[in-house]
Amino acid sequence: MARIALLTLEDRTGYVIDDELAVNELRQRGLDAVEIPWSQPGVEWSRFDLVIVRTTWDYHLRVDEFLRTLAYIDDSGTMLENPRALILWNLDKRYLRDLEARGVPIVPSIWGESGTAMEFAALFAALGCAEIVVKPVVSANAVDTFRLHAPLDPSQLDALVRTFAGRPWFAQAFVQSVLTEGEISVFYFDGQLSHAVRKVPKAGDFRVQEDHGGAIIPLPLTEDVRAAADHVIRAVTPAPFQARVDLVRLADGTLAVMELEMIEPSLYFRTDAGSPSNFADAVERRLAAAAQRSETSASATGSDLPCLHVD
Questions:
Q1: Residue 302 has pLDDT above 90, yes or no
Q2: CA-CA distance, 95 to 262, in Å (whole number)?
Q3: Fewer Cβ within 10 Å of end Cβ, the chain: N or C?
Q4: Which of 255, 222, 257, 254 is nearest to 243 (CA)?
């Protein structure tokens, strides 16, 4: 029986986590699936066939420790999904620049590190808008995220300078459709489309996360949304085991990437009855592919052994 660990966080208080739906589906298929806090000491990772980074939603508070855990898992020889190299790339929001270079439309952005009050005040003109969002390049759950209107008062400028002192950040034009249409999230498992939701902020807010009162609504996929999301996934090679493509509609109607989440995306299994099965299908495909690689490697090694002739 294959053993699968889904990494989570120790203190789940206040979080909406529905990974038990996927765990139950895996168990029904005869797979030994368990959720384990990523920071739990003394775990013998080599006893698992597959470790999946799932609801590790506090990792951004201890990034170095989190990355050490992933290195331990890698060193144990256990398959890690998504792979550590992909997680390292996705950890820094500057991956958006790479996607843009590959032809993927992104929300207009400016990148910087530290910054003076004058530099932050100039972002509105540089982005050509009166409202912007500034956030760290490594963050989660809208921590240290600022929604700002021009002109900025001295206290706001001071807060920006203090918050990002010695830290890289990026600024994006605020997309007004977030307040009405919301963000569109499209989910892929093993490169195959699974389901989609629309995330809409509560009245008077712009943050779409449930923790901040956002509403999560199942979304039937339209042709334009699917084409835009597929384009993003094709820009990542090899295909990630799990990915959430967050899209927003710009003023000209273009669907642009807000984020491509491949570390610990909320997958909203409860919004789509078929999604736990889609997830489990992807797990079984990855396990089968790993087994095939192992058999091929064993066969190749065997073929290199010297032949023994008995006279």
A1: no
A2: 11
A3: C
A4: 257
* CA pair distance 258, 30, nearest whole angstrom: 38
Measured at the CA of 249, the angle between CA 201 and CA 276, to 5 degrees, comes to: 65
CB 196 within 8 A of CB 187: yes
- The helix-helix angle for 84-91 and 63-75 (nearest 10°) equals 160
- For residue 128, pLDDT beyond 50: yes
Are the C-beta atoms of 202 and 210 separated by less than 8 Å? no
**Residue 265, beta-bridge partner list:** none
Q: What DSSP state is assigned to residue 143?
A: T
Contacts of 285 (CB under 8 A, 6+ apart): 190
Residue 210: the pLDDT is 62
Dihedral of alpha carbons 83, 84, 87, 92, sign: negative
Closest CA to 185 of 127, 253, 265, 282: 265
Report the alpha-carbon distance of residue 171 to residue 160 in Å, rounded: 11
Residue with tokens 């339209």: 222
User: By the 8 A CB rule, do 95 and 260 touch?
Assistant: yes
- Count of CA atoms in the C-beta half-sphere (13 A) of 302: 6
Q: Is the pTM of this model over 0.85?
A: yes
Q: Which domains does the chain have, with CATH numbers?
A: 3-90+271-291 (3.40.50.20), 92-105+177-266 (3.30.470.20), 109-174 (3.30.1490.20)
Q: Are 131 and 148 in contact (CB under 8 A)?
A: yes
Pairing of strands 168-173, 131-136: antiparallel
Residues 6+ apart with CB under 8 A from 206: 133, 147, 174, 178, 179
pLDDT at 140 over 90: no
